[in-house]
Amino acid sequence: MNLIPKINGKVSLTGGVCSYGGQTPVTAANGAGIPREGYVLTVEPEEIKIEAGDGAGAFYARQTLEQLAREGDIPCGRYEDAPKFPFRGFMLDVSRHFFGVEEIKKLLDHMAKLKLNAFHWHLSDDQGFRIESLKFPELNRIGSWRDEGGQKAGGYYTQEEIRQVVAYASERFINIIPEIDLPGHTGAIVATMPELSCSGEPHQVGFGTGLNPRILCAGNEKVYSFLYELLDEVCQLFPGPYFHIGGDEAPKSEWEKCPRCQQRIKDGGLKDEEDLQAWFTGRLVEFLESRGKTVIGWNEILTSGTVSPKAVAQYWIESGKEYSDKEAGKGRKFVFSNMSAFYLDYPCAVIGMRPIYEYDPYIIEGKPIPKDQVLGLEAPLWTERVIENSHVERLVFPRLLALAENGWTAGKDFTGFMSRAAIYTEYLKEQGVAVTPIAECDPHGAEGARMAGLQIVEVVTGFTQAQKDKEQRGKTMRSLGKILLDGFLKRSGYSQDEQALAYESMEKAIREMGL
Ligand SMILES: [Zn+2]
User: Fold this and answer.
1) Taking burial as the number of CB atoms within 10 A of a residue's CB, which of 76, 229, 236, 270 is the most buried?
2) Could you read off the pLDDT of 299-315 as tens digits, one per residue?
3) Number of domains composing the chain
4) What is the pLDDT of residue 125?
5) Does the residue 16 lie in any domain?
């Protein structure tokens, strides 16, 4: 049996082989005592029986059946299966580059086959606003487009398209989690309505990488009334239980100089600009909770320790481990997306199948987080440097297989997983999915370490493109490269000697660039 994800439960085979070619009748029944999303599949020569406690479980039983049938005859027997984590997700950034509805549906299709149930849709950022707004059409006229060297680039999903995608996902038991990143990463909103920023100065929808200091003003009441209206409109498009408000990487330089923001800090008895972000976030969380949503935010929303205990933190940046650990101690729930394990925008040579597959949730190493606070895992794909659909697919596959199995199945067996994944990737190719060759996604040994060093240079080159001063750029590349490599190498199980090789090849590549 070459299932991905592997069955997470008991399999009792009777020894014979059964077939499933559309002739064998499949009956479905409610199964008492079966966990959420779980099922019991009984395959007999005359009949195939599916018992499930909910619709998702019955759907997953069919996915299993179809995957088993792809290999021909199915071993007769009883298969009991249920997921390890309730949240198994994938995120696509459609702001940095826009991807059409057909590609989204294709990805949803393959997520469903892998029993993934959360599609986090990063719909707003500095580089474009991607939801049609009937309340604020200017957001689409201005905020959805940017100038790329004289070419108009971008786009947005119409409300009709969004409803279609939501329905398509729902038929596959996938929740869509819309993200409007706030208060940072709001360049597209500020370009449309500069009056909502601190300075009010005109702004252009961004292009490329780097942090944008133009963010929403937290001291202006008009910002909140705008956001309440906008979020209300977005909530109506996405009926799912979660709403993502971003909250990451909000530079505070404008807030420091803004009289309104400073007044707000004073009036609210707030400590500083970080506290002001917490206050800003708190108001949005309160609003969204009143609309019945559970809010998710990147782990920076935890900095102040005051955000609603119901909000879920998405743990991505390990520099935030102290305050995240504190919040974990208070019982907060987390989705895990550690940058060094799950960021699919990093090439396979840096994040291979192994770190994704082997990952066990923790905040501070050696101190595991209680199981009931782990909602699950999610792999994000940021698209600053990803333009083509086929590039999206090559970054997602085969690595999403590792996420799917880690999210569903408790027992780990990397070698067995890799041989099953090799078979699965052949299927993906037959289905017209662009896939990175699986061998490239398991870098190891001296050669793997050297390649990781080289690839990190490519990544930091992108991050530092805007820096003009050569000496400064070299310095940033080295320090950033080291931080990134440290995380990746540790997780990928390289020896001390191999790690040294990775740093050597990074240094050599930076020097060859004349930096
Ligand atoms: Zn301000």
Assistant:
1) 270
2) 999 988 888 999 999 99
3) 3
4) 97
5) yes
Residue 168 burial by Cβ neighbours in a 10 Å radius (0-12, 13-18, 19+): middle
4 domain-assigned: no
CA 332 / ligand 1 centre spacing (Å): 30
- C-alpha 225/C-alpha 431 separation (Å) is 46
Of 48, 81, 114, the residue at which a domain comes to its end is 81
CATH number at residue 36: 3.30.379.10
* Residue ranges near ligand 1 (ion) with Cβ within 5 Å: 198, 217, 219, 258, 260-261
Domain presence at residue 3: no
Residue range(s) defining the domain that contains residue 454: 443-512
pLDDT at 22: 66
**Shared-domain flag, residues 259 and 344:** yes
The label of the residue with tokens 């660039």 reads 513
Instruction: For residue 229, report the distance from its CA to the centre of ligand 1, in Å.
Output: 20
Region for 374 from its dihedrals, namely left if φ exceeds 0, alpha if ψ lies in -120 to 50, beta otherwise = beta
pLDDT given at position 182: 97
pLDDT of residue 136: 98
pLDDT < 70 regions, the chain: 22, 366
CA of 127 to the centre of ligand 1 (A): 21
Rounded to the nearest angstrom, the distance between the alpha carbon of 268 and the centre of ligand 1 is 14
What spacing in Å lies between the alpha carbon of 182 and ligand 1's midpoint?
Answer: 14
- Residues catalogued as catalytic: 125, 185, 249
pLDDT score of 178: 98
What span, in angstroms and rounded, lies between the C-alpha atoms of 5 and 409? 7
